[in-house]
Structure formats: C-alpha cells, structure tokens
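Render this sequence as a predicted structure.
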Amino acid sequence: MKNHGTGFLKRLRLAAVCCAISIAFVSHAEAAGVPDTVVDPALNPLAVDGHLQVVFTYSDARNEDLILSIPALAANPILDNHTTPIGSVIDLGSYTGNLTFKLDNIFTGATYYSDQLDGYGDYHVRLDANYADFGVGSLDPTSLANITTLANAGYSLIFMAWEDHDLGSYETSDWDYNDVIFALAYQVHLDRVPEPLSLSMFGVGLAGVAGLRRRKKATG
C-alpha cells in the first residue's frame, strides 16, 4: 500500500527546490542587468502636441551614437553623443502628431527605435521623470540650469535613456540604459494644464549642485 503522505512530502520538497532555483536565477539576472522587454504604451507611439526641446544630459558609450526623430524635426540627427556638448539644448520646434526617436550606433550599424522591440525582443529605451533612477549621479550644472529654465518657462519634462547594444552585438549589452540620456521638454496647448514642477524630477541633480556651491563657498 502506497504511503500518500510520503509522496506528498516528496513533491512538496521538489517544488521548494524548484522555487529556490527560480529565485536564484532571477536574482542573478537582476544583478547582471536585464533588458526592458515590454514597450511602454505611452511610446506606442509618442503623441506630441506642442513645442519640443531636447537637453543632452549624459553619455557612457564608447561607440558613437546618433539620435534622430521620425519624422525629422529641425536638423537630423538631433544629437551625436561624441560631438554634442553635454547640456546642449536642441530646439525641435512645434509639432503635432506621432513622434518616434531612433538611435543609430555608428560602430555596430545597429538601429533601435523608441516604439519598437529589437530583433531579439528587447526594448532599448527607458522613460523616467526622476533622473536619479538612472544611477549616473547628479545632473551636471549646465544641464540642470537649462532644464530648470525650461521648467520655469512652462515645459513639462521626461528623461529618455538608451541602451546601444543588443544580444547580437560584439559586446553583449549590460542593459544599464545610460549610453545616451536626454531630457525631452514639451509644451502642451493652452487647453491642457501641465502638472506643477516637482523637484524630485531632477533627482540628485539639485542636491549635487547645492553641494558644489557649498564647497566653492568653503574654499573661497
């Protein structure tokens, strides 16, 4: 006669082991960096209705990356991470319609879009209003000053961060989304009321500049 209690305990122990393995796998994946595999519905496509400006805030890419808009607004490419100075403001003018951004990796020849997964099913863009979430430190003083000026002029802002490698690259992507980061500043029509500016939008940027000013006073 079978001991059903013993069989149940064996199955329970097996399930516990499988669960532990799954948790370990997830923890390893998180530590190594994993891609965003779901396209943000807000970017599918990005609906624009008003005046647009871009502030280039950061790049940690050895490869030369170009950012372009589709359709082309003002000059395309909008910025080049190797030649455009950090803090630069690029005026894209007024536009109403669906807008897509594109990254061209000059070295690998790869192209990624803000509203599409790549050929491996991974997403190469992150949107976040809190700059601190990208883990790249404070906004530099020039970027912070220009972003603050735009915010005070009534622009709403969101940061767009890019990953410029994929699973097929010569150098496998680390999925840290810091190869190109810029702020997208936009003004909506007067029949829409933008949300008040939140200091948390700039993350550690404000704190970093405040600390820099204190150090200058102490050494002055």
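Summary. The chain has one domain: 45-219. DSSP finds three helices and eight strands in the chain.
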